[in-house]
Each structure stands twice: as structure tokens, then as C-alpha cells.
Amino acid sequence: MSESTLVKPQTTSAPVLPALATTTKPQQSLPFLYQFMAGGIAGVSEILVMYPLDVVKTRFQLQVDSKVGGERYTSVMDCLKKIVKNEGFSRLYRGILPPVLVEAPKRAIKFSANEQYSSLYKKLNGVDKVTQRVSIQAGISAGITEALVIVPFELVKIRLQNKENAGKYSGTMDAISKIIKQESVFALFNGLEATIWRHATWNGGYFGVIFGIKKRLPEAHNKQQQLRNNFIAGAVGGTVGTIINTPFDVVKTRIQNDSGIVKKYNWAIPAIGTVAKEESIKALYKGFVPKVLRLGPGGGILLVVFDQVTTWMRKYML
């Protein structure tokens, strides 16, 4: 997740991603449509490369230690091998349609909202340039805004990724239809509060860390060095964001997968307490390895691709 020609924080005007500006001249803010297009391209690129790890993450998060029977996964490679061997390679991409469909608006909201919130928090903090505090505040607010849009897509994706639902839903539209018919249209928004927690914490950590990392990296003097800095900052930011938000992601997955009338998990904080009590604190980081393997490098991929697309747009479309 990035802006164009990103080297150091800007000291004059607010770029699209407040912590990521150039050392030369201020970057012109892109119109929302361009943000939409660039964010969508970056997000879909990351999904196509890293999605199998998201499937693995979900399988681990739904794996309850006390559960009797069923297939058990012991590592990322073990899970990947068992899915391919027992269910077929295509299962690694089951449920990919909902995140692909939502990726463009999701990333557009993330970037454009981040810019708007950055301007707002600069005024509220009485500063004329983006600081790390402003960057974190803007990231959290953008994450909350993003979460409000993606909840139904996340819920459908979780249901499709769960192996136990393989015979229950034949595809995305079938899942949506059955959820609405059997659980009501409001069921599509189950886990909204947990999703807000997940995205607010990830975005706050991601943008805040990017700000700090880019200040400390060697100044980029050419495009290759800029790409290097973007990937390093994005990868570290994605890793830190993942460390912070994984417990909320675990309970979000549990809440959204539950299709029963009487639900075991309802709200994020009580659900975290339930998981910790019944399965240990360690259980709150189930799926952490595949998640960090995806969102660490994935954060770098997003930053680099978004930078390249927005640079091209400024050069040829503005």
C-alpha cells in the first residue's frame, strides 16, 4: 500500500499515503477513480500470488484442539500438501471470488480514506506535516472505514474456505443465497465488530511502521532503490500489523463461520477470552505463520505495485 516515488515523509503537502512521500517535489493527489483503479490492481495482484496462504490460515483458525475426528494440520506445508492431495489444487483458491470482487473498492477506500483522514488529523493535532502519530491515527480510521465495506465478502470467503462446508455451498452465489435464506440478510454482517477491530489494528500498525521504517532506510537515489525501500517498509509494516491483529482475526473467523442459531462467539473481546480460556493464549495466534507469510511479503507487494501503477498514471494519464 503506497504512493508514488516513495522515499521519505513529505514535509509540505499530504500525499495519498501520509507517511510515504518523495524527497523532491510534492506529489499531486490522484482522483478517486485513479485511486480505485490503482488500489484494485495492487490488491488483486497480491491476492493472486498469496491467496493459498489465506486458505491455510483459515483452516488453522477453525481447527479446535479439543475437536474429535477430522483432518489435522501440523504446519503450513502439511496443510498445503493435504489440501492438494485430498481435495485438489483448485481448493487452494476456493472462495477467492469474494475478495477479488471487493479488492478494488477495499483498496480504494484504504488509500483515499487514509489521505482524507491524514488531512483531518493534521488539523486536529495542530501540525502542518504528517507525523507518526498522524499516520497511525489515519491508518486506524481508514481501517475502520474499510471494515464496514468488506464484512459480507469476508463472511462468504470464510464459509467457502472451511472444508466442512465443501458440500454445503457450491460457490459464491450459492453461499450468499443460502446464508440469506437460512440465516437472514443481516447474517452477512456477522462479525462486523470483530472485523473493525482486525482492520483498525492492522492498518494502524501497518501505516505507523511504514512511516518509521522509511525514515530510517537509506535514501533512495534511483527506481530500484525506491522499490527496495517500498518492499522492505511494506513487508515490515505488514508483519507488525499481523502480530497486532491476529487475535482479532482468529475470533472474527470463528464468529463468521458460525451458522448456528445459538452462537458460541458473538463479540470480539469476550470471544478472545473464551478462546484463551478453553484453548490457551497460544490459540489466539492460530494461523499466524501462514498469515504473516502472506501479509508480510504481501504488504510489500501491495506497496510496490501501487507505487508502480500510480507512477504510471501520473506520467501518462494526468
The total domain count is: 1
Q: Might you state the CATH topology name?
A: Mitochondrial carrier fold
Taking Cα atoms only, what radius of gyration do you get, to the nearest Å? 20 Å
- Count of alpha/pi helices: 9
Helix and strand element order: HHHHHHHHH
User: How many strand elements?
Assistant: 0
What is the CATH homology-level superfamily?
A: Mitochondrial carrier domain
Do you know the CATH architecture?
Answer: Alpha/alpha barrel
CATH class: Mainly Alpha
Strand content: under 5%
Look at the structure and give the mean pLDDT.
83
Q: How would the global form be characterised?
A: globular
Structural class: mainly alpha
Query: Major sheet, described briefly?
Result: none
Proportion of residues in helical segments: 55-70%
Structural description of this entry:
The chain is an all-alpha fold and 318 residues long. It has one domain (32-316): Mitochondrial carrier fold, CATH 1.50.40.10. It contains 9 helices and no strands. Helix 7 crosses helix 8 (268-279) and helix 7 (223-257) packs across helix 9. The radius of gyration is 20 Å and the shape is globular. The model is unreliable at 1-25 (pLDDT under 50).
Give the structure's gist in a few sentences.
This protein is mainly alpha-helical and 318 residues long.
